[in-house]
Backbone:
């Protein structure tokens, strides 16, 4: 079947009444959690995972994907109106968005953010539709050594691109790999590190862990500071950008879309880095860089386009290689695994309805989000007036119910509390959580492919360098690992020369 | 500046690395041609030991990187304590009673007025019970209210 037939099949799946409903629910919830500061997409997806257990796999992924890209749309609202990013990827939007609001141009900032997001989202879905099948067919040629090196490179990128220090990222990655070994050995079924506790035979429950690390930990962090949320009072009128606005920022939207798309494909890349990168590019290309930080509309358009494009394109490594690039996509990976579907190059052949159905739902979701964001902007502003304490108590209750419902056991609630405290402390000491989550998910694959490669090559570690694809991937990973070290040496040499 | 908290965190990572490495040796490591269940955790455990030693060395010299200052930890501590008690009593007392009390503690920590606190925790408990237990089929423990639920 050709591309258009496949896509038409996908639309037939996505346009069914139930899938349309789940797509709308996902987009709505995503916008809501994007608008509300204090609860991010990974936590929300983790909280809703138990709800998807009884759903059709396509519907489950359509809804969870909607939450993820919907949050990128909603995140800009609080950045512009409150100077508080609703979502980490919208941090940079605060700089110019809030300044625009103070100048009485909140409407135009919200408008360009929503329309720019729509354009970027749609372009990115088009990119995913074209690029994913090609990459999936290429990945079919991969053997265990290539997969080992690919997973290793993915982990290194997630660590290298995380906001915190590389050493902390490496420690979190190593810890995640170790926790991933708890349970039965994948080859001979020997129990490992279960401490004689039968509940640990199946390993640490991922859903419970993520609820604690992202859901409960976020609430615990927010409980420290007194509730202080002041909404900028301004008349929200003129949501459509005027001709002059468009003249200034149409190129920024396109540049942000392309940059975001390519950064999103990289494991660990994602929406946060792409929004910062897009802002930096726009400032550098601008004839008047001094306007940035003082209410430049390009400073809103480019990052918002970039974070939307990146959130969509981050589905490419998941669907084609089976490698989640960030914590939210990792949740969708888990949802697929719970439904007995292994993401990877065979997904397209074995579950074409799911693959194309999810892609088609993204086109629909983007259109729905534009409809949700512009006309309903006053509703989202009103939602912001709900005191945080009510959101916090609801999240805590949903976390305990969600954890309990996994096995109908208080043990899982206890594990969720344990990981909640752990997540709180790790945040306080600025240890990045993404490398930990990705390492835990990818650990079993890394171990399996390492063992298969070594057994097949008679224990020869050079097998990873003998094959061209794995050699390139491994060298890239090595380069990433050595870059911070090289930077430090250069910095020291510079200081010594300067002194 | 040297921060004791960072040294404690580094030591925790180091202890975890040592425990996993020792456990991996017990499981048998094997050789690269025939890796045993302990092979992968052993390699990874050694890496974690090396990384956490480097982190401790840096933390000792006050160069462990950024960290966020703790704010008013009374709030998070009270909620964690309430959650520990919740886990201990959930199956005995049941969902309705324990969740009502847990919600009240969270709201109290967030300085909610008593009347609102009672109203919100009661309604949240009842609504969540009806939605999850009755509507979505999650079996929540009835506890001492078995006769009424």
Residues:
């Amino acid at each position: 079947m050709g591309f258009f037939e496949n896509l038409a099949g996908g639309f037939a799946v996505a346009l069914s009444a139930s899938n349309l409903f789940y797509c709308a629910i996902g987009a709505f919830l995503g916008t809501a959690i994007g608008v509300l500061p204090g609860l991010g997409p990974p936590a929300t997806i983790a909280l809703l995972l138990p709800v998807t257990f009884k759903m059709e796999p396509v519907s489950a992924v359509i809804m969870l994907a909607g939450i993820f890209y919907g949050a990128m749309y909603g995140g800009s609202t609080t950045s512009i109106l409150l100077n508080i990013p609703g979502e980490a990827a919208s941090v940079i939007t605060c700089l110019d968005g809030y300044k625009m609001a103070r100048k009485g141009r909140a409407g135009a900032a919200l408008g360009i953010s929503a329309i720019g997001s729509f354009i970027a989202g749609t372009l990115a879905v088009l990119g995913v539709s074209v690029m994913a099948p090609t990459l999936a067919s290429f990945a079919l040629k991969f053997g265990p050594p290539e997969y080992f090196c690919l997973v290793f490179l993915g982990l290194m990128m997630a660590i290298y691109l995380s906001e915190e220090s590389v050493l902390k990222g490496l420690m979190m990655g190593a810890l995640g790999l170790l926790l991933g070994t708890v349970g039965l050995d994948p080859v001979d079924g020997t129990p490992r590190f279960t401490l004689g506790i039968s509940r640990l035979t199946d390993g640490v429950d991922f859903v419970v862990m993520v609820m604690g690390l992202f859901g409960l930990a976020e609430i615990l962090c927010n409980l420290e500071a007194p509730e202080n949320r002041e909404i900028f009072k301004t008349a929200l009128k003129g949501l459509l950008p005027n001709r002059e606005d468009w003249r200034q920022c149409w190129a920024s939207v396109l540049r942000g879309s392309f940059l975001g798309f390519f950064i999103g494909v990289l494991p660990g890349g994602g929406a946060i880095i792409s929004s910062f990168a897009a802002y930096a590019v726009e400032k550098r290309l601008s004839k008047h860089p001094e306007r940035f930080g003082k209410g430049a509309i390009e400073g809103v358009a480019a990052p918002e386009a970039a974070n939307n494009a990146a959130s969509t394109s981050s589905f490419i490594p998941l669907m084609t290689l089976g490698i989640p690039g960030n914590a939210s996509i990792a949740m969708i990976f888990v949802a697929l695994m719970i439904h007995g579907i292994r993401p990877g190059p065979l997904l397209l052949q074995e579950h074409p309805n799911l693959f194309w159905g999810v892609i088609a739902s993204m086109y629909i979701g983007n259109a729905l989000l534009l409809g949700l964001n512009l006309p309903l902007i006053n509703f989202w502003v009103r939602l912001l007036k709900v005191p945080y304490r009510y959101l916090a108590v609801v999240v805590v209750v949903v976390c305990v119910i969600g954890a309990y419902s996994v096995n109908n056991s208080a043990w899982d609630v206890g594990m969720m509390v344990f990981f909640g405290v752990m997540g709180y402390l790790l945040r306080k000491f600025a240890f990045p959580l993404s490398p930990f989550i990705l390492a835990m998910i990818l650990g079993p694959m890394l171990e399996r492919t390492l063992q298969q490669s070594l057994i097949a090559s008679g224990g020869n570690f050079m097998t990873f360098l003998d094959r061209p694809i794995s050699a390139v991937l491994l060298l890239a990973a090595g380069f990433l690992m050595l870059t911070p070290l090289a930077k430090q040496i250069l910095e020291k040499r510079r200081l010594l020369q300067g002194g | 500046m040297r921060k004791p908290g960072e040294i404690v965190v580094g030591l925790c990572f180091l202890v975890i690395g040592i425990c996993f490495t020792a456990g991996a040796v017990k499981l048998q490591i094997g050789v690269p041609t025939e890796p045993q269940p302990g092979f992968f955790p052993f390699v990874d455990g050694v890496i974690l030991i090396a990384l956490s030693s480097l982190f401790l060395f840096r933390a000792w010299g006050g160069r462990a990187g950024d960290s966020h200052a703790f704010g008013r930890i009374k709030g998070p501590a009270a909620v964690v304590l309430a959650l520990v008690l919740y886990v201990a009593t959930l199956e005995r007392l049941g969902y309705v009673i324990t969740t009502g009390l847990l919600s009240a503690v969270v709201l109290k920590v967030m300085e909610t007025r008593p009347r609102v606190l009672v109203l919100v925790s009661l309604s949240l408990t009842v609504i969540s019970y009806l939605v999850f237990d009755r509507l979505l089929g999650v079996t929540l423990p009835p506890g001492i209210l078995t006769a009424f639920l």
